[in-house]
Design brief:
Oligomer: heterotrimer
Structural class of chain B: alpha/beta
Largest sheet of chain A: none
Number of helices of chain B: 33
Number of strands of chain B: 40
Chains: A mainly alpha, B alpha/beta, C mainly alpha
Radius of gyration of chain A: 24 Å
Helix content of chain B: 25-40%
Number of helices of chain A: 18
Number of strands of chain A: 0
Structural class of chain A: mainly alpha
Order of helices and strands of chain A: HHHHHHHHHHHHHHHHHH
C-alpha cells in the first residue's frame, strides 16, 4: 500500500527500487471480469479486428499457394542447393520453435517460482506458444517437398516394410520433442482456460454461444472439489512442462550439434539455443502484447511492471546469447582446428559476412539499450527493440544454418545461397497464419486469465487481513 | 473434344501443308459425339492428312516438354503428386502391368543377362575400338576393347557419350525431299535415273563431300564409283582436320605419314602446344596417356619422366606438366625454331624471346640434349605445318626418330589437303559445274570456312543430297535429307590412329531404318543393292591378310574387334633439313586461336546433353563456350568475367562472353568451336556462340583480332567450381593465389613432393605435419567388424589422373544419372556422382592444376548415416555406404553432414520419364531416381552384386562334383564404371581384405592417404599423393603460402 | 439463471470420451489390417489374361517341368515368359482349333507378341534375382505357392517387404535340397513318412533313400532329416547362404 501513488510519477522521478504494481489500483472483481469478458462477449466485432483478420487471411492464402506449388514442383523452387541443402525452411523452423518458448516458461516456471506478475500475460503467451509451434511444425513437413512420405515414415508405425525409423537421427528426436511439447502446452493452456470459459458460459447472452462455451468448459461449476482438482492438475502440468522448456530447444540444437560440420559441431549449442529461444520468445510476447494492450485498453492489467520484467528477462537472456557468440569465436581460435578457424573467418568476413554483423548489431548491440529504465518503461521503444530482437534471432539461425553450410570442408564444393520468392512467400505465409490465429484467439477467448486476475486484487487478501486483525 | 481441336489448330500453324486447316475444320464441324471420332478417323485416312502431319514434323522432331503450358511431362507430374497426396503411397495398389514375351525367342538370348559385342567408334583421328553392352539386344553402355592396343580397355569422353547420340530424340527420323517425306526407295529411283543421265558425261557434275574417311571399305567403294564416273570428284572435309601434320609430312618426306610416339621410352617430353592428355582429338590419346603415366606411377624399375609444356591455352597437358611456359600460339614457332637452333637441328636464332623464355629454352635444350634418344618433342595439332617440321627436325637432331618417334600410314585411308579440296569444290559449285552434290555426314554449312560461303554455293547446285543423323544446318538447305544410321546401327570398318583396322558391327537394327554411307555410295556402283555388310565382306575377302578360311577369320575379327596385322607397316623416314621460314606476329597483336571444344568437339556432339553438361577441364565450364583470355589481358582490355565482347577478325565479327582462364599467355584469345548452333536439337540449340563465323580459309588456326570491344551486355556462364583470387596483400607469396588451392593445401587435400624429395622420403605424404587418421574407432556407437568377407575399397592415383573426364561420363552412363540443364547447374544442382575437383597451386598466371576425382568415399564411419531419420542411407556388411532411393524422404541432412559433398539431390524431377527414345538407353540394373530423392556414387553396387551372384552360382555348380569346392569373387571381377573407362589406370577398385588384390597392394604404398581422415570418417576411397618432377633451373609451380612442398633441389 | 445442459449431459460427456478412445483404436487397427489386406497386395486376384492358361492342367495334369517354359530361371535374374513358339510346340499338334487358343495361333501367324498381364509384379526399385534363389535351394513353390492347383494364375505371397524379410531373416524355413525338390511344387518338406537323406558334410541330398544324387552310389555317412528346420539349418551351412545380417542388407534388393 505504501507505494500507492508513486506510479503516477514519471519513471525518471521514481525511487529506483520501486516497481509499478502488477495490476492498476481501483479494480473490483466485477470490473476485472467485466473488462476482460467484454472483448469476447461483445456482439460487435471491432473494425480493426476484421481488417487485420482479412489481411492475415490473405497472407495465409499465399502460404497455401506456396505449399501447393512446392508439392507439385518439388523443393527445387527454393534457393537450396548443394552445399547449402538447408535454407529458409530450417531457419524458420528453429526460429518459430524458439518463439514458442516464452509461453510455457512464463506459465510453468514463473508459476513454480510464484511470480505473481505472470498471471495477466500467461494466457496470451501460451496461446502465442501454441501458434508458434504450429508454424514451426509446418516446416519439417514442407521441407522435404514430399509430405506424403515424411508424414508417416518418421513415426514408429508398424508398416509392411518391416523397418523402423532410425532413432540415432536427431531429426527423429525432433519429431518426438516437438510433438510432446505441443501436446503438453495445449493441455496446460486449455486447463488454465476452463474456469474462465465457465465464466463466459454464465455470462453469454446468446444460447448457441452458451452451449459452445458450455461444452468447452466441461461442466465446470466452480465447486470446491473442482477448484482443488484444478489446482492439482495445473501444478502437475506445470511440473511436466518445465523440463520441456529446456528439452525442446536442446533437442533442436542437436539437429546441428550432432553434425560434423564446422559451425554446427559444438557443445555450447544447447544452453545458448535455449537462452536464444527465451530471448526471442519474450520479444515476440512484447511484440504482440504492446499493441494489444493499447488497442483493448488493457493497460490496467498488462502494466508497465510486466513490460519491464519482460525487458529484464530479455536483457539477461540476450547477454547469455552474446556469451554464446563470444564462445564460438573463442573456440574457433582456441581449438586451432583449420576447419573451425576458417569457418569462423568465413562467417565474419566471407561473402555472406554482412549477415553476421547485422546479427551482432540486432541481437547484442541494440538490445543493450534495455539497461536504461527510460527504454524499458516506454512501450513504443520497447516494442521496436522487441522487433529488432526477433529479426536478430532469425538472422542468428540464418547464420548458423546457411553460412556454416555454404563453405565447408572441400573448397571445391563451396557454393552460395540465394533465397527465391517462394522461400519468402512461405515464411511470410507462416507469419500471416500466426497473426491470424492470434486474432481469432483474442476474439473468442479471454486473452487474460480472469480468475487469476481476481486473485491479484487486494480484496482477495481478505482472509490474510482477518488473521492479522485477530492477533 | 476441346483438346483434339486444339491439337489440330496447333498442328496447322505452319504455312506449308497439303490439307488446309479450313478443310480440317469443315470435316470436324459437322460431326458431334461419336461421329466426331469417326470423322477424326476418316480425317486421318484422308489423303493429305499424313503430309499435313509430316510437314509439321518433317524430320520427325518429336513433341517434347514445352516450357510454357501444361506439357505431358508436367501433367504426369501433376497426376503423380495428386495421386500420392490422395492416399498414403503405401496403401496405393500396384497398377496392372503387361508382360510381353517374344514370339520366337533368339536361341542365344538369356533374358536378363547382358551380352557384349566388339565394334569401333569412327572418329576423324582414327577409330576407337569399343565393347558395347547389350541388354536384350539394345546397346546400353560403351566400354573400351581390351584386345585392341588403341584402347586396351579404356575409352575417352567422346566414346563414352556416343551412345546417347544413338537414342537422341532429335535425330532425323525419316528422309525428305524438299521437306516432303520420302523413303529410301524414292531416292534409289532418283539415283538410277541420274546415273543414266550422268553416265554420258562421266559424272562431270557429280561431287562427293565426305568427312575424313577412316573406313577402307568405304574408300574402296568410293573408288569404284570414281572409276565408273571418271569426271566425278570426291572431297573430304572436317573442320578439325590435320592439314598441318599432313602437309608437313609431304614437305619433309614427300609422302603422307603419321608420327607414332613411344612415351614409355621417353625420359623427357616437350609438348609444343600439343594437348595429348585430354581426348582422342589428339590421335592415339588413349594409348599415349597410358604410356605416359606408366612413367609416373613410381614403379621401381621405371624412373619418372619429365614433361615440359610450351602452350598457348590452359590444357590438361600443361596443367600436369612439370615445367610450363605460356606463349601465344603464334610465338611457339619462334620458340621451336630457336630450340631447333640450340640443338643444331636447323631453325633460326632466338629472336624476340623474353628472358624467362630464354631461360626456359636453355634449360629445356640442356635437358633434351642430356636425354638425346630418350626424349620426345610433340607438335600441336592446331599449329601450322612449320612447327611440325621443326619438331620433326628437333627429334631428328636428338636422334629420337626410330626410338621414341616412328612413322606409319595415316589413319585416313586417302589423306588430302582438306582446305584446298574444299576451296576447289566451292569454286566448281559457284562456277555451276556441279549439278549433284552428295554430302556424307558432316555439316559444312555450319563449319566450312566462312569466306567460302558454302551455303551460297549450295544454292547454285541443283541437287544437294545430305546423308545425316540430324536435320542440321546443312540438311535444311539441301533438297534431299537422307536420315543416316548411327555407328551402332550399321556395318562398317575403321582404322585406328596407327592404321590397325577393326570392324564396325551393328548392335541394333536402325531405330528409324536409316542408311549408311556404304549403302548410299553403293547406289552409284553397278551393284546398287549391295548392303554395308556385303561391302565389308567383299572388301576384306580381298584384303584381309589372314591365312585360312575367311568366314572363320571374319567371325574372329568380329569377336576380337581387331583385324590382325592390318596395320600398314612402319615407315623409316628422315625429315629433310632446312629450317622453314617463319614470320613472327607483332608482340602487341592479339591473336585469336580456334580449338576443338573438349566436350562438343567440332559441333558434332552439340546435341549430346551428357557432353554439354560435362565440365570442360580446368575451365569447369558447362553448356557454353567463351572468349577465353588471361587475367592480365582481360584486365588490360578492361573486360570483366561474363562481359559480352565483340571480336572482329578481318571484317567479320562474333559476340562472345569473356571467361578468364588461369595460365593463358598475354594477348591471346582462345575460342572453342562447336557452339552457337540453331538447328542442333533440344540440348544444343542456342548455347554459346559460333566461332566458325570468323574462321576463314586465310586464318584457319590462328587469326589476329582487329577489334575487341564490349557490347555492354553480360552473358551468364555455368561454371561448376568457381575460383576466387586471393586479393594481393603484404606477403608477395600470397599474390594471385587461388583461395581454393590455398585451402586445399592447408587442409592436406593435396599432398605432393618433388621426385628427389620423394626418393629421399617416400613417406612424405604422412611424415610432414599432416593431421593423421584417428586409430581407434572413436564413435559413440559400436563399430562394425570389417575384417571378414569382401571389403570394397578404391585407390585413386593423383599422379596418373589427367582429368580427361571419361570416368565422369562413364559414371553418368552406367548409373542413369540425370541431366539438369544450364540453369540448375548454375545454382549448384549438378547431379554428377563423380566430379573431378581441380585445384590450382602456384601463381595463377601460370599455375599447376591438381585433378582430384571426387566420388563417395564410402566412409566406414560415414557421417551421413546416423543423421538420416528413416535409415535411407546405410552401410552394407561389405563396407559400402549404400543409398536406398525408395526409402529416402529427402531431408537432405546427409548431404549437409557429408564432408566431401558428394551427395546429389533431385531438387526437381530431373530424370526424363517421358521421352520414349531415352528409355532403352537406361541401365536396367539401376533405379531411375525420381524427385525429392538423394543419390550418390554406389561403387557400382549393381556390378558388385552381379559378380557375387555369378560367383555363388558357379560355386553351387562346382559343388555338384566337389562338395567342398569354393568360389570367391576374384580380384578384377568387379570393375567400377569409372575404373573401366580410365585410360591411365588411375582408379583401382577391389577387395581390401584380400592381401593380394591390386587395390590392397596400391593402398600399401607410403604415398597412400585419405581425405579429411582427421574428421574420423575412415574413408574407403584413398588417394595416392602426387610426385612432380620440375626442372629447378626454371622453378616449380606447386609452392603455396604456408606450405613448401618441394624445397631446394638436392 | 437456467443451466445450459440437463443432468444427462454429464453421462454424455463421459460416454463421448470412451467412444473417442474406441474410434481411434479401431481406426488404427483397420488401417493396419488394410495395408496388409489382399485388396492392397492383390493376393489371390485372378487377373484378366488373353488366354486362360491353366498351370493346374499343365503342371499337375501334364507334369510339365517349370523350366520347360521358364527357361532362364536357373541362370538369369528373370525366369522368362515362354515365347509363343513354346506354346506352339504342342499346340500346333493338339487343340489346334480350340477357340481359346486363337490368340496364340494368331500371335504365331502374325508374329505379334501376346500381351499377358503380370501377376507377380514387384515395384521397379526391387531387384529380385531368380538365379541365386534357385541355386541356393529356394523352391518355386516357396514364393509362387501351389501353382499346380491354380486353374488361373494368381499371386500367392503378399510380396511385401516384410514378407521378403521374413525369409531373409531366417532362410532355414524354406531352404530345400538342390535338385528335384526345387521344382517339385508339391514337395512339403521332410517329415516322418518322407525323410531326406544327406551325405554328411555335403549338400548332396536325396528323397529316395541314402543314395548320392549324381552317381546313385550309396552314401558313406548319410544323415536323415525328418523336419524342415533341422534340414534348413544344415543346408544353410552347406550352401554357404550368407548370414541374415548380410542378406537383409538394403543393397541386396535395392540399388
Amino acid at each position: 500500500m505504501s507505494t500507492k501513488g508513486l506510479t503516477d510519477l514519471p519513471p525518471s522521478k521514481r525511487p529506483f527500487l520501486v516497481d509499478p504494481p502488477v495490476i492498476a489500483p481501483g479494480h473490483t472483481f466485477a470490473s476485472v471480469t467485466e473488462k476482460v469478458m467484454r472483448t469476447v462477449l461483445t456482439p460487435r466485432t471491432p473494425f480493426g479486428w476484421i481488417f487485420g483478420f482479412l489481411i492475415t487471411f490473405g497472407v495465409v492464402q499465399v502460404l497455401m499457394i506456396a505449399a501447393g506449388y512446392l508439392f507439385y514442383e518439388g523443393v527445387g523452387i527454393w534457393g537450396i542447393t548443394i552445399p547449402s541443402a538447408w535454407g529458409f525452411a530450417i531457419v524458420n523452423f528453429v526460429w518459430w520453435i524458439g518463439i514458442g518458448h516464452a509461453g510455457t516458461l512464463i506459465s510453468a516456471i514463473l508459476l513454480l517460482l510464484k511470480q505473481s506478475w505472470r498471471t495477466s500475460i500467461n494466457r496470451a503467451a501460451e496461446a502465442m506458444t501454441l501458434f508458434a509451434v504450429m508454424c514451426a511444425g509446418m516446416f519439417p513437413i514442407l521441407h522435404t517437398g514430399r509430405p506424403w512420405l515424411a508424414a508417416y515414415w518418421l513415426f514408429p508405425i508398424p508398416l509392411t516394410m518391416g523397418v523402423w525409423p532410425q532413432f540415432r537421427s536427431p531429426l527423429i528426436w525432433d519429431v518426438f520433442a516437438v510433438s510432446t511439447y505441443f501436446t503438453v502446452s495445449l493441455l496446460f493452456w486449455y486447463t488454465g482456460l476452463i474456469p474462465d470459459i465457465a465464466t463466459l458460459r454464465d455470462n453469454a447472452k446468446h444460447k448457441i454461444t452458451r452451449t459452445i462455451y458450455g461444452v468447452m468448459c466441461m461442466g465446470w461449476r466452480g465447486s470446491g472439489r473442482h477448484w482443488a482438482r484444478y489446482e492439482t492438475a495445473y501444478l502437475i502440468l506445470a511440473g511436466l512442462s518445465t523440463p520441456l522448456v529446456l528439452s525442446v530447444h536442446t533437442v533442436v540444437s542437436w539437429d546441428f550439434a550432432i553434425a560434423v560440420l564446422p559451425g554446427w559441431h559444438t557443445t555450447i549449442f544447447p544452453p545458448y539455443f535455449v537462452a536464444g529461444a527465451i530471448y526471442s520468445g519474450f520479444a515476440m510476447v512484447l511484440t504482440l502484447l504492446i499493441p494489444i494492450r493499447a488497442a483493448y485498453g488493457m493497460k490496467d492489467f498488462i502494466t508497465e511492471r510486466h513490460l519491464q520484467n519482460m525487458a529484464k528477462v530479455m536483457l539477461a537472456t540476450g547477454l547469455i546469447v552474446a556469451y554464446g557468440y563470444f564462445m564460438e569465436a573463442l573456440m574457433s581460435w582456441y581449438a586451432g582446428d583449420v576447419f573451425e578457424t576458417f569457418q569462423f573467418k568465413n562467417r565474419a568476413t566471407g561473402p555472406l559476412g554482412y549477415f553476421y554483423w547485422l546479427l551482432i548489431t540486432f541481437n547484442i548491440v541494440l538490445p543493450q539499450s534495455l539497461w536504461f529504465r527510460k527504454v524499458r518503461s516506454s512501450p513504443v521503444v520497447l516494442w521496436i527493440v522487441s522487433i529488432i530482437v526477433n529479426i536478430g534471432m532469425w538472422l542468428e539461425r540464418f547464420v548458423i544454418v546457411v553460412i556454416s553450410l555454404h563453405r565447408d570442408f572441400l573448397p571445391s564444393s563451396w557454393g552460395t545461397y540465394k533465397a527465391t520468392r517462394w522461400d519468402y512467400a512461405t515464411f511470410i505465409g507462416t507469419l500471416g497464419f500466426f497473426t491470424m490465429a492470434f486474432l481469432l484467439f483474442i476474439r473468442v477467448l479471454p486473452m487474460i486469465s480472469i480468475f487469476e486476475l481476481r486473485v491479484l486484487l487486494p480484496q482477495s487478501r481478505v482472509r490474510l487481513q482477518a488473521q492479522e486483525f485477530m492477533k | 473434344m476441346e483438346n483434339h481441336t486444339d491439337n489440330l489448330v496447333q498442328i496447322t500453324t505452319t504455312p506449308k501443308r497439303k490439307l488446309s486447316l479450313q478443310e480440317v475444320r469443315e470435316r470436324l464441324s459437322a460431326a458431334k459425339g461419336k461421329a466426331y471420332w469417326r470423322s477424326l478417323e476418316e480425317l486421318v485416312d484422308a489423303p493429305g492428312f499424313e503430309e499435313l502431319l509430316e510437314n509439321e514434323f518433317p524430320a520427325g522432331v518429336t513433341e517434347f516438354p514445352q516450357e510454357s503450358g501444361v506439357s505431358r511431362r508436367n501433367f504426369m507430374k501433376l497426376m503423380g503428386a495428386s495421386m500420392a497426396l490422395a492416399g498414403l503411397s503405401a496403401c496405393t495398389r500396384q497398377p496392372e502391368e503387361p508382360i510381353v514375351p517374344y514370339v520366337r525367342q533368339p536361341e542365344d538370348l538369356i533374358p536378363g543377362v547382358p551380352k557384349y559385342f566388339a565394334t569401333t567408334m569412327p572418329f576423324p583421328t582414327g577409330g576407337i575400338p569399343v565393347l558395347v553392352k547389350s541388354n536384350e539386344f539394345r546397346p546400353t553402355k560403351i566400354e573400351g576393347n581390351a584386345m585392341h592396343p588403341a584402347s586396351s580397355g579404356a575409352t575417352d569422353v567422346f566414346a563414352q557419350a556416343s551412345i546417347l547420340d544413338l537414342y537422341d530424340p532429335d535425330r532425323a527420323q525419316n528422309s525428305s525431299y524438299r521437306d516432303q517425306r520420302r523413303n529410301w526407295g524414292d531416292f534409289h529411283d532418283a539415283i538410277d535415273a541420274y546415273k543414266v543421265k550422268a553416265g554420258a558425261s562421266g559424272g562431270a557434275g557429280l561431287r562427293f563431300l565426305s568427312e575424313t574417311i577412316i573406313s577402307p571399305t568405304l574408300v574402296w567403294q568410293m573408288q569404284t564409283v570414281l572409276k565408273k564416273f571418271p569426271s566425278a570428284k570426291w572431297y573430304q572435309w572436317d573442320p578439325i582436320h590435320r592439314d598441318s601434320a599432313r602437309s608437313a609430312a609431304k614437305q619433309m618426306f614427300g609422302q603422307y605419314a603419321e608420327p607414332i610416339y613411344n612415351f614409355e621410352a621417353a625420359n623427357v617430353v616437350l609438348s609444343l602446344d600439343a594437348d595429348f592428355l585430354y581426348a582422342s582429338y589428339f590421335p592415339g590419346f588413349i594409348p599415349y596417356a597410358r604410356a605416359f603415366t606408366k612413367r609416373r606411377k613410381m614403379a621401381e624399375d621405371t624412373p619418372m619422366n619429365r614433361l615440359y609444356a610450351v602452350e598457348s591455352f590452359a590444357t590438361t597437358t600443361g596443367a600436369l606438366s612439370d615445367n610450363r611456359l605460356r606463349m601465344r600460339a603464334s610465338d611457339i614457332m619462334v620458340f621451336a625454331s630457336a630450340l631447333a637452333a640450340a640443338l643444331g637441328g636447323g631453325g633460326g636464332a632466338a629472336t624476340g624471346l623474353s628472358d624467362d623464355e630464354q631461360k626456359f629454352l636453355q634449360a629445356v635444350a640442356k635437358d633434351l640434349k642430356a636425354n638425346a634418344g630418350a626424349s620426345l618433342v610433340i607438335p600441336g595439332e592446331q599449329q601450322p605445318p612449320e612447327l611440325h617440321i621443326l619438331a620433326a627436325q628437333i627429334n631428328q637432331a636428338l636422334g629420337n626418330i626410330g626410338k621414341t618417334v616412328s612413322y606409319a600410314e595415316p589413319p585416313e585411308v586417302v589423306p588430302t589437303d582438306q582446305f584446298a579440296g574444299l576451296r576447289e569444290l566451292v569454286g566448281d559449285m559457284n562456277a555451276g559445274k556441279v549439278d549433284t552434290l552428295i554430302i556424307l555426314y558432316g555439316n559444312p554449312v555450319y563449319d566450312a570456312p566462312v569466306d567460302l560461303d558454302f551455303e551460297g554455293a549450295m544454292g547454285k547446285v541443283a541437287n544437294n543430297v545430305h546423308l545425316s543423323l540430324y536435320r542440321n544446318e546443312t540438311s535444311r538447305v539441301s533438297q534431299w535429307l537422307l536420315h543416316g544410321a548411327h555407328y551402332l546401327e550399321t556395318w562398317s570398318d575403321a582404322r585406328a590412329y596407327d592404321g590397325t583396322a577393326s570392324l564396325v558391327q551393328p548392335l541394333i537394327a536402325p531405330l528409324y531404318d536409316g542408311h549408311s554411307a556404304h549403302e548410299l555410295v553403293a547406289l552409284f556402283t553397278d551393284t546398287p543393292e549391295m548392303t554395308a555388310y556385303q561391302a565389308i565382306q567383299t572388301y576384306w575377302q580381298q584384303n584381309g591378310k589372314a591365312a585360312g578360311d575367311f568366314a572363320t577369320n571374319f567371325r574372329r575379327w568380329l569377336h576380337d574387334g581387331i583385324i590382325p596385322n592390318s596395320a600398314p607397316g612402319a615407315k623409316t623416314l628422315t625429315p629433310r633439313a632446312g629450317a622453314p621460314t617463319i614470320t613472327p606476329l607483332a608482340k602487341d597483336a592479339i591473336e585469336v586461336v580456334f580449338r576443338p571444344d573438349p566436350t562438343t568437339y567440332d559441333g558434332r556432339y552439340n546435341n549430346n546433353a551428357w557432353l554439354q553438361e560435362c565440365p570442360k577441364p580446368l575451365l569447369r565450364l558447362e553448356w557454353d563456350n567463351a572468349a577465353m583470355m588471361s587475367i592480365e589481358t582481360a584486365a588490360r582490355l578492361g573486360f570483366e568475367q561474363e562481359d559480352v565482347i565483340r571480336i572482329t577478325v578481318d571484317g567479320r565479327y562474333v559476340d562472345a562472353p569473356v571467361l578468364v582462364v588461369y595460365g593463358m599467355p598475354e594477348n591471346s584469345i582462345t575460342l572453342n568451336l562447336g557452339y552457337g548452333r540453331y538447328f542442333s536439337g533440344r540440348a544444343g540449340n542456342g548455347f554459346g556462340f559460333n566461332a566458325y563465323a570468323i574462321r576463314s580459309t586465310k586464318t584457319p588456326l590462328i587469326a589476329v583480332a582487329e577489334k575487341l570491344e564490349k557490347t555492354g551486355d553480360t552473358y551468364h556462364l555455368a561454371v561448376v567450381q568457381n575460383y576466387t583470387l586471393i586479393k594481393p596483400h603484404g606477403d608477395p607469396k600470397w599474390m594471385n593465389r587461388s583461395v581454393q588451392g590455398a585451402e586445399a593445401v592447408r587442409r592436406d587435400l593435396i599432398r605432393v613432393a618433388s621426385y628427389d624429395q620423394y626418393k629421399k622420403d617416400p613417406d612424405f605424404a604422412h611424415s610432414q605435419t599432416f593431421d593423421e587418421d584417428p586409430q581407434s574407432y572413436d564413435s559413440l556407437y559400436p563399430g562394425f567388424d570389417y575384417t571378414k568377407g569382401y571389403q570394397w575399397g578404391m585407390a585413386i592415383d593423383m599422379n596418373s589422373c589427367v582429368g580427361c573426364n571419361s570416368c565422369v561420363i562413364a559414371c553418368q552412363a552406367e548409373n542413369n544419372v540425370a541431366v539438369v540443364g544450364k540453369e540448375q547447374v548454375k545454382i549448384g544442382r549438378d547431379m554428377k556422382w563423380l566430379r573431378i575437383d581441380t585445384y590450382y597451386t602456384g601463381d595463377l598466371h601460370n599455375p599447376r592444376a591438381f585433378f582430384q576425382p571426387m566420388l563417395c568415399q564410402h566412409c566406414e564411419n560415414a557421417p551421413c548415416e546416423p543423421v538420416c531419420p528413416v535409415g535411407a542411407t546405410v552401410h552394407t556388411p561389405e563396407g559400402v555406404n549404400t543409398m536406398v532411393y525408395n526409402r529416402c524422404v529427402g531431408t537432405r541432412y546427409c548431404s549437409n553432414n557429408c564432408p566431401y559433398k558428394v551427395r546429389r539431390f533431385n531438387f526437381k524431377l530431373f530424370s526424363d520419364y517421358i521421352t520414349p527414345s531415352l528409355k532403352p538407353l537406361r541401365n536396367p540394373d539401376v533405379t531411375v531416381r525420381s524427385r525429392g530423392v538423394m543419390e550418390k556414387c554406389s561403387y557400382c553396387i549393381q556390378r558388385i552384386n552381379a559378380a557375387r551372384i555369378q560367383a555363388e552360382v558357379e560355386e553351387t555348380r562346382l559343388q555338384e562334383d566337389d562338395p567342398t569346392a569354393e568360389r570367391k569373387i576374384r580380384d578384377g571381377e568387379v570393375v567400377t564404371a569409372c575404373q573401366q573407362a580410365c585410360p591411365t589406370d588411375a582408379i583401382v577398385f577391389g577387395n581390401i581384405n584380400d592381401p593380394d588384390s591390386r587395390v590392397t597392394r596400391i593402398k600399401a604404398q607410403p604415398r597412400n592417404y585419405g581425405l579429411l581422415t582427421d574428421v574420423n570418417t575412415r574413408p574407403r576411397t584413398s588417394y595416392i599423393a602426387s610426385v612432380v618432377n620440375p626442372n629447378f633451373e626454371i622453378g616449380d609451380r606447386t609452392d603455396m603460402p604456408g606450405k613448401t612442398f618441394i624445397g631446394e633441389q638436392s | 439463471m437456467p443451466q445450459v445442459f440437463n443432468r444427462g449431459a454429464n453421462g454424455l460427456a463421459r460416454m463421448s470420451l470412451v467412444i473417442l478412445g474406441l474410434v481411434v483404436t479401431s481406426l488404427a487397427l483397420t488401417l493396419n489390417e488394410l495395408q496388409r489386406s489382399p485388396y492392397v497386395t492383390r493376393q489371390g486376384e485372378r487377373l484378366e489374361q488373353p488366354v486362360p492358361f491353366s498351370h493346374q492342367h499343365h503342371v499337375a495334369g501334364l507334369g510339365l517341368d517349370c523350366r520347360y517354359c521358364h527357361t532362364s530361371v536357373e541362370n538369369s535374374s528373370f525366369a522368362g515368359i515362354p515365347p509363343t513358339k513354346t506354346c506352339m510346340n504342342c499346340h500346333s499338334e493338339i487343340w489346334t482349333n480350340a477357340d481359346i487358343l486363337e490368340p496364340v495361333r494368331s500371335s504365331y501367324r502374325n508374329n505379334t507378341s501376346i500381351w499377358w498381364t503380370k501377376i507377380h509384379d514387384l515395384p521397379d526399385y526391387v531387384y529380385f534375382n531368380h538365379e541365386i534363389h534357385i541355386n541356393k535351394g529356394i523352391g518355386c513353390a516357396s514364393c509362387h505357392g501351389p501353382v499346380d492347383e491354380m486353374p488361373l494364375m494368381y499371386q500367392h505371397g503378399s510380396l511385401q517387404m516384410e514378407w521378403c524379410l521374413d525369409c531373409h531373416r531366417n532362410p532355414a524355413k524354406n531352404i530345400r535340397p538342390i535338385g528335384d525338390p526345387i521344382f517339385n511344387i508339391g514337395w512339403k518338406g521332410p517329415s516322418q513318412d518322407n525323410q531326406v537323406w544327406c551325405e554328411q558334410g555335403t549338400g548332396d541330398c536325396s528323397l529316395s533313400g541314402p543314395y548320392l544324387q549324381k552317381s546313385g552310389k550309396p552314401m558313406l555317412k548319410p544323415i536323415v532329416f525328418t523336419d524342415q528346420m533341422t534340414l534348413g539349418k544344415y543346408l544353410v551351412a552347406q550352401y554357404h547362404v550368407r548370414t541374415p545380417n548380410e542378406i537383409q542388407s538394403c543393397e541386396t534388393c535395392h540399388r
